[in-house]
Specification:
The chain is an alpha+beta fold. 48% of the residues lie in helices and 12% in strands. Strands 8, 9, 10, 11, 12 and 13 form a 6-stranded antiparallel beta sheet that branches. A hairpin with a 2-residue loop joins strand 1 and strand 2. The N terminus and C terminus are likely disordered.
């Protein structure tokens, strides 16, 4: 069963905070206050975990590109952690052991070693480096050699594995673009185009898997999940209206890069828990101008991407921001990005609000039609429906389904039954049901939402 246990929650938490520290060390240096703060969080979480489990250390391992903590694979932590996992492997290690006495200084030293541009690809030398820097409670461990103590391997279908790798690559790409933008370096837009090409292929195979992985049940502290979801939503709508593959790639690239300007917005403003002050709001509202400028400075940027980055907060009649909205002609791609951006913002967890249900979000968007393109909003509603791809839904026979795609009946999408009587089904036992034409033993309609964490993917 894939229920996230009390054991895995703090494990996922300290992995995410370690990743947070690594990315910010690459952005601002290992001595930055946010790195030290995250290191203290990791130290506390590790100590509490060791005390609770009555163990002297906890092991963060790397197995088949996934995070494995104390023998348990963690999909949620793995989705954003490609950069961390690659850095561990770059020193010739298969994981990191963090002792029960791990201090914040130990974690900061570990991050400093991992964040170096050219890590020493030698396990013994990397551990010697840690000791020389007086980090005595953390050490790199060798990759699993095939012995008896084999860690648990993630189980998933081929499509799921492909989707996980794509999500990891996309987050890692966005992390890299953020670092490049903060350092004033030119972005490698060709990498974005490659990721979008794989997104289109993945949506053709199984849209629900990609959308499901992109749904963060908690706050997405890097906001990269937002950009991924907006790109997937834009591509879902676009692929129903055009078969032009090159145009789809341009639309996906524009959507994935629409918030690139947030890389230059202060972290304290971007992730503030409460209401923004007038000054902070003005700074936040600069991100479209900053994003347009970042992309204009890149020789290979697509004009569609520049326009979407600059104009996705412009509304008809000159409303919205930047202030020059009334002078800006908003093209169809920018208008589509705006629709998807609003839907994603409403349905996502934010520091200042819980997630809104898709049905309520659509009602809200229909009520604000003067701020959205009515034709595109209508198409969006028909394509995404009340139950977007990847959503977990409760079916009328008590089973739980994963929405694969929308049909012409909002309450009867195409679903994959993933759990019966509260028990997750193995891959080979899952079946797809078009709720418009069910068999005698099949469920017939959606009756509610299923909690995201009760039936997660088979990687957990």
């Amino acid at each position: 069963m894939s229920t996230m246990s009390a054991l895995s929650v703090p494990a996922a938490s300290y992995v995410e905070r370690l990743l947070f520290a690594l990315v910010h060390a690459q952005l601002y240096g290992p001595g930055h206050a946010r790195v030290r703060e995250a290191a203290a969080d990791v130290s506390k979480a590790v100590r509490e975990r060791c005390e609770r489990e009555h163990t002297s250390a906890t092991l963060l391992g790397v197995v088949a590109g996934q995070v494995v903590v104390d023998g348990k694979p963690l999909l949620g932590a793995s989705l954003s952690a490609r950069r961390l996992l690659q850095r561990i492997e770059a020193v010739g290690a298969g994981g990191v052991e963090l002792g029960a006495t791990t201090s914040a200084d130990d974690v900061t030293t570990l991050v400093e070693v991992l964040a170096r541009r050219a890590p020493v690809a030698d396990l013994r030398a990397a551990n010697a480096d840690l000791l020389q820097r007086r980090a005595r409670a953390v050490r790199f461990v060798a990759p699993w050699d095939g012995g008896d103590a084999a860690p648990a391997a993630p189980a998933a279908s081929g499509d799921e594995r492909t989707a996980v790798l794509l999500h990891q690559d996309t987050v890692d790409l966005l992390q890299g673009l953020t670092i490049a933008a903060c350092h004033g370096r030119e972005l490698d837009v060709s990498q974005v185009e490659g990721v979008v090409d794989r997104m289109v292929e993945g949506l053709d195979r199984d849209a629900g898997v990609l959308h499901g992985l992109a749904r963060y049940p908690e706050y997405d502290f890097f906001t990269f999940g937002h950009s991924i979801r907006v790109a997937l939503l834009c591509l879902e709508v676009a692929r129903r209206t055009t078969t032009d593959r090159a145009l789809l790639h341009r639309i996906g690239t524009a959507a994935l890069l629409h918030d690139v300007g947030k890389a230059l917005v202060r972290w304290e403003v971007l992730h503030k828990q409460g209401s923004l002050s007038a000054e902070e709001r003005r700074e936040m509202q600069r991100h479209p101008v900053l994003g347009g400028g970042i992309l204009l400075a890149n020789r290979d940027s697509d004009p569609l991407a520049v326009a979407a980055a600059y104009g996705h907060h412009c509304a008809p009649g000159g409303h919205g921001y930047p202030r020059s909205c009334d002078e800006f002609h908003q093209g169809v791609v920018t208008r589509l990005v705006r629709v998807c951006d609003v839907f994603e913002a409403l349905t996502a967890v934010r520091p200042y609000k819980p997630a809104m249900s898709p049905a309520r979000a659509i009602r809200t968007m229909l009520a604000m039609r003067e701020g959205l393109d009515e034709a595109l909003l209508g198409t969006f509603v028909r394509v995404v429906g009340l139950h977007p791809p990847g959503t977990r839904v409760l079916l009328d026979d008590g089973s739980v389904g994963r929405v694969v795609s929308q049909t012409d009946d909002f309450h009867r999408p195409l679903v994959e039954v993933v759990a019966v009587d509260g028990v997750a089904l193995p891959l080979e036992a899952r079946r797809r049901v078009d709720l418009r034409v069910p068999g005698e033993e099949d469920p017939r309609r959606v009756v509610g939402s299923a909690p995201e964490l009760e039936v997660s993917t088979s990687f957990d």
